[in-house]
Amino acid sequence: MAGPSAPSGPDLTQGIPLGIVGDNGNLLGHVGDEAVLLARRGDEYFAIGATCTHYSGPLAEGLMVGDTVRCPWHHARFSLRTGEAIDAPAFNPVGCWRTEVRDGSVYVREKIEPGFAPARLKTQAAPDRIVIVGGGAAGFAAAEMLRREGFAGSITMLSSDNAPPYDRPNCSKDYLAGNAPEEWMPLRPPEFYRDNGIDLRLETEVASIDARGHSVSLTDGKSLPFDKLLLATGAEPIRLDIPGANAPHVFVLRSLADSRAIIERAKAAKHAVVLGASFIGLEAAAALRAREIEVHVAAPERAPLEKVFGSEMAQFVRLLHEEHGVTFHLEQKATAIDGARVRLESGQTLDADLVIIGIGVRPRTALAERAGLQVDRGVSVNEYLQTSAPDIFAAGDIARWPDAYSGSRLRIEHWVVAERQGQTAARNMLGAGEKFTQVPFFWSQHYDVPINYVGHAEGWDDIAIEGDIAGRDCMLRYRRGGRVLAAASIYRDRESLEAEVAMEREAVQ
Ligand SMILES: Cc1cc2nc3c(=O)[nH]c(=O)nc-3n(C[C@H](O)[C@H](O)[C@H](O)COP(=O)(O)OP(=O)(O)OC[C@H]3O[C@@H](n4cnc5c(N)ncnc54)[C@H](O)[C@@H]3O)c2cc1C
Ligand code: FES
Q1: Mutation test of ligand 2: which of 74, 94, 496 has the most ligand atoms closer than 8 Å to its C-beta?
Q2: Is there a smaller number of Cβ atoms within 10 Å at the N or the C end of the chain?
Q3: Helix and strand tally (H, E) in the chain?
Q4: Ligand nearest to the CA of 234
């Protein structure tokens, strides 16, 4: 994704007459060749970098909420006072400049260099040793936040993966399509872990957790003590139980290694079959089309993603993929993979020198179950993300938490939710006592069409559609009993942010 490149707007060092920027408004300008956002809140003026540090989203098109600004693309939040990336999916701060009001104008002055951050959380009994099980979204975000909060004890991150934490969503998008270079994938370079004293141990599998004795055992027989533990083991792809499903040209897509293996196979492949019209299945289909491979998608549902988006948006998603050359075989299950052919229930066979199974995931809860933690279709946590063992927290795809807006206990498989839960769990391991009240958000990318979604709706009475879905300019509100449960949008980024804020305000009342 490309963000704003050449700085536009006025040179903010030359002064902007007061009144040009309305209350709660902002102005995009520049300082030298850096794009800078001049924002006003009451009588206060702030100047921060205008380009989101996640994927370069244009913050001037985002939404200001209090003394923060939210990115229009994937809803990261930045402090207007310091430029800090307060909430994922951005982690790096944007620049921050001093402002001065003089003679009826506001001037942007020198850049404020981030200083040494002392421990922000003053806790009575800070733990000495924190162990994080999982090196994915939640685990990484937690480790990063622990150091940002000034935690000085030991952090050990145990990950069964062979790669340091990476941009998992990209594994089915630009990276798989061949449009993202390798250096985009790691969330941080290797020296980050060394410099921040994070003992990241890759290819390290935790075998069991002794909740009472405060230790974890590894599959190599070693054990490790902890004062607080974060369990963030994510989810694993469901395998298909049909003949041929374990053949070497049949793949699931969860990890960077999976994505690389598919890319390797795709180099010589001509015909791909994707089993399952899930987000991952469809994103993989789009990526393979970008590689000019013939793609067939077979799935049991009537329309792709209908359960999540409803029939109108599902129809749009189907047509969009068909326009790009994907052939659907819906209301059809595969019965066998027979060499380079996939057999469907109807008896039809599809050529396939590459097969991707994208039929969903199941949370990796085995460790929690064996440790005697409360499990209910996910690891049960309270609003502080604490499991039934007070020194063990859980976050991400495995955690089922009491959602403040819906009032239901949710377990959700979204990147941003996992990262933000990791951030909240980190602060709570340090004793912050912070409730996780964030409204769920996810995005999905199909060719050049991003779909953003806030809230969570597993069922609804009706969908209020504003705009034009086919015209790629729409907002769909999923309502039950007159209440908006969730909102999906295409190129209505501000409205998506506004819907998120409206839900948050209702949730905390
Ligand atoms: C290809 C792909 C694309 C996606 N795209 C999107 C998207 O566009 N938008 C969106 O919102 N979400 C997306 N998701 C979902 C999102 O990536 C997940 O919700 C998120 O990664 C969950 O984070 P997590 O930390 O819970 O688990 P993960 O990120 O899966 O991390 C789990 C970690 O635990 C480790 N682990 C597991 N068991 C053990 C053990 N016993 N010992 C040690 N380590 C262990 C694993 O190796 C891994 O490092 C996508 C997922 C995939 C696979
Ligand atoms: S580009 Fe800003 S949150 Fe992704």
Answers
A1: 74
A2: C
A3: 10, 36
A4: 1
